[in-house]
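Lecture notes, unit on binding sites. The following record was shown on slide 14. It pairs a sequence with pyridoxal-5'-phosphate.
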Amino acid sequence: MGRVYNFAAGPAAMPLEALETAAREMTCYGDTGMSVMEMSHRSKMYLAIYDETVALVKELMHVPDDYAILLLQGGATQQFAAVPMNLMTGSGRADYIDSGNFAHGALVEAGKYGKVNVVASSRDENYRAIPAWDKAAFDPEADYFYITSNNTIFGTRYAALPDTGSVPLVADMSSNILSEPYDVTKFGVIFAGAQKNIGPAGLTLVVARKDLLGRCMPITPKIMDWQKQAENGSMINTPPTYAIYMAGLCLKWLKKQGGAEGIEPVNIEKANMLYDVIDNSRLFKGTADPASRSRMNVTFVTDSPERDAEFVKQAAAKGLVNLKGHRLVGGIRASIYNSMPVEGVKALAKFMKEFESHV
Ligand SMILES: *Cc1c(COP(=O)(O)O)cnc(C)c1O
C-alpha cells in the first residue's frame, strides 16, 4: 500500500526522507555494525547522535547560550507538574491562561503545588478563542506566567504573546514548536512533546533559561529537576535514545526547508488553503474564532455530526486519514504540521469542495 496523507494530531506524520533514512540505517548505523536502538547511551557513537540533535535544536530555534536544552521522557504532561515543582518557590504563585484542555490540565496540576491565578479563560465558550487578557490581572510577583501557544484540540493559536514584564513566560509549544520563528529570549521556559512537530513520541524537549534552574521544591523527583538534568546532560537515566535519533533526522529535514523561517510561509499557505474553503463554503463551518485560528490544527464541522462522520469516512477512502475531530469538540480536525506536504493539503481542499458539491 502507498503512503496516505495522515492528518493525525499526534503522534503525527513525519518527513518521508527521515523515515527512509531510519529504514536504511535500521540494522547498521554508519560503521558501527549495530542499530541505534542497540547502542549504549553513554557510548561515543550514541553521544555524537545526541549532541547533533541538541545542536540542531539550538540552531533551528536560535537558542542563546544562557538557556539549557533538555531532551527528556514523560511527555508534555509530565512538564505540567515539573513546571510548578521547578519554579513555584518564590511567591508560590503563578499566572495561567486557560485556553484549552491541555492548558487546563496544566493549571489543575500546578494547583497541587502552589496558588494558581487564572488571569484569562475561554473555558465557558468551549475554548473557541484565545481569551482576551487584562494586564491589570497579572500578578507582578508570580513565579511564572503560563501559556499554551497552540491549542491542538480546539485549533487556536496566540496571534500575540502577553507582555509579562519580568515574570518569566512559560510556554507549552507542543503543537506549534518550530512551525514559525519564536524569539526564545521572550520566554523563561519552552517545552514540547516531540510527537507533533519534532519527531516521534517518547521525547520531550525543554528549553529553560539557566537562571531559572536550581530553585526547585525539595520534593521534586530528581528525574524532574531541570537543574539536575542539565548537569547530567539529560542522562540521569537512559534517555529515549531512538526517539532522539529520529528527532535529529526530522530536524535535519527541517533545516533543509530553511528552518522555522523557511517553513512558516508554507504553513501559512497550507492553513489559508483550508480556511479559504471553509470561509467560502455553505456546508463547512470553522469552529475556532477567526482571530485565533491555528496554522497547525484546522477544526471545522458540516451541518450535522452524521455528515461529519460521512466526510471523515469518504476522505479516508481517498487516502486522507485521521480527520476525525477530538471528542471534546467533535467534527473534523486537519492537523497540518511541518511534515504535511502542500500536496496533502491541496488534496484535502479539493476533496472538501467535491464533498460539498454532492450535498
Ligand atoms: C499533545 C499535547 C500535550 C500532551 O502531550 P504528551 O506528550 O502526550 O504528554 C500537551 N500539550 C499540548 C499543547 C499538546 O498538543
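Take-home: The two ends are 30 Å apart (CA to CA).
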